[in-house]
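Annex B. Sample input.
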Amino acid sequence: MMTNVATQVMTTVNAPYGADLSVHQLAAMVADPQSAVEFNAPVFSFFSEVPAAVQKQFLKGMDVDLGQASKVAGQFAKLSGYTLPLAV
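Annex B, continued. Sample output.
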């Protein structure tokens, strides 16, 4: 079942890129360092366009390790030159 948070996140990351990720696919990808290596656009969108509080709610709701997701955000920050809220 989709929550309001998940709906907001999925609309933000799927629509601009014509992607069709599920919440479970996105949850796995935001904690996977390979997403940064491949510069996955929907994952970058998650870290750069979704508000930090909503990112944390999504991660918690999907049982994604915040520390691991923060590492992936850090990789994206280095690659892109953007400051990302969850980046470590």
